[in-house]
Amino acid sequence: MTIFRKLALALALLATAVYADQVVLRDGHPDRYVVVKGDTLWDISERFLESPWLWPEIWYVNPQVENPHLIYPGDVLTLVYVDGKPQLRVERGKGTYKLSPQARAERLDKAIPTIPIDAIQQFLTQPLVADQDTLENAAYVVSSADEHLIAGAGDRIYARGVDADQGDRYHIFRPGDAYIDPDTGEVLGYEALYLGDGSAEKFGDPSTLRLTRTNREINIGDRIMPMTQEDVYAYFTPHAPKEEVEGRIISVVDGVTQIGQYQVVAINRGTREGIDVGTVFEIYQAGQLIPDQVSKERNAQVQLPDEKAGLLMVFRTFEKVSFALIMKATSALHVGDRVRNP
After folding, report:
1. Is the pLDDT of residue 270 over 50?
2. CA-CA distance, 174 to 192, in Å (whole number)?
3. Mean pLDDT across 34-55
4. Is 266 helix (H, G, I), strand (E, B) or coil?
5. 6: pLDDT confidence band, cut at 50, 70 and 90?
6. Which residues, including other chains, have CB under 8 Å from residue 132's CB and lie 6 or more apart?
7. Residue 13, φ and ψ in degrees, nearest 5
8. Paired strand residues for 225
9. Fewest CB atoms within 10 Å of the CB: 117, 123, 174, 272?
């Protein structure tokens, strides 16, 4: 065997080994699965793979299937092997209804989401993070129109700074605590606590808004932002960061102390660091600093190593902060735990 053939064989074996290290099929995986309503791509991938976020590595895009990146109830997923490597293929199931006499066909069902949509629905369109300029320049509530001390859905409010050019539908929010980078001390933004929605009935100074939906009372000084058609998605592809990134969990929604599966957290990395929707991070529980009871050195301490504790996936990004859903938690997670490339 020539040196070139030996080198080619070694490279081929290395590539196979790397692929095998990345994509590992779960023991007892099915060879065929019929998608049902309520499934998510993550759940289905977990049936086949040890690391479900790697499903794009084995996904075969069939050019003959309409919207092959979207999976619908009734579709059949089949696991096959090509050149010794696993592939997942889709056979389009039922779920269309032909309208007569037109030739158009429409889906009666919706594509399954990547992750549980009910866990993140309220975070997809509402303001979550605001910078200092936004807070200082935002419109604000000056009074209730009907002499209520606090206002709720159905009530009218007066607001200053509302501009007809911004449309007639608005979010109402309350500035919250600052998001601070625990490593650098940088202020990354401010929590925008969502209070409700309103629609403009009359523009002026002040303008009159009717509250259409509230989940908390509306008070004088609460801020107002126009609703925007922001690009948020329920369907996206999980992937690792493009570069090596390390960050921390800096907040958990609802302020609980321990974090579990399907809870929403904020991390101190955003679009500035190249984070986009679908980015997956491994979570490491921060090792404690404990006293060394054996060392003869006075006040000796030892830093315990960080331990793998779960996975999260980013579903919404801002410049310096991202929001993610905890997809897996092998132990209790906490604010301050680190996130790294999986």
Report:
1. yes
2. 6
3. 89
4. strand
5. very low
6. 187, 190
7. -65, -40
8. 171
9. 272
State how far the alpha carbon of 10 is from the alpha carbons of 4, 13, 22, 152, 254, in Å.
10, 5, 18, 69, 53
Do the bridges between strand 223-226 and strand 139-144 make them parallel or antiparallel, or are there none, so unpaired? antiparallel
Query: Residue 211: its pLDDT value, please?
Result: 94
Nearest CA-CA partner of 140 in 124, 123, 160: 160
Output the six-digit token pair for 20: 């095998």
Domains of the chain: 3-107 (no CATH), 122-226 (2.40.10), 246-340 (2.40.10.410)
- Transcribe 45-114 into DSSP letters: HHHHBSSGGGGGGTB---TTSSSTTS--TT-EEEEEEETTEEEEEEE--S-EEE-SSS--EEESS-PPPS
Helix (H, G, I), strand (E, B) or coil at 3: helix
Cβ atoms of 263 and 326 closer than 8 Å = yes
Tokens of 251: 């907040």
C-alpha distance across the termini of the chain, in Å? 39
Q: What is the pLDDT of residue 54?
A: 87
User: Please, where are the H alpha helices in 129-285?
Assistant: 132-137
How far apart are alpha carbons 193 and 196 in whole angstroms? 10
What is the residue-wise DSSP string for 238-262?
Answer: -B--SS--EEEEEEEGGG-SSB-TT
pTM of this structure: 0.75
- With cut-offs at 50, 70 and 90, classify the pLDDT of residue 101: very low
pLDDT band at 313 (very low <50, low <70, confident <90, very high): very high
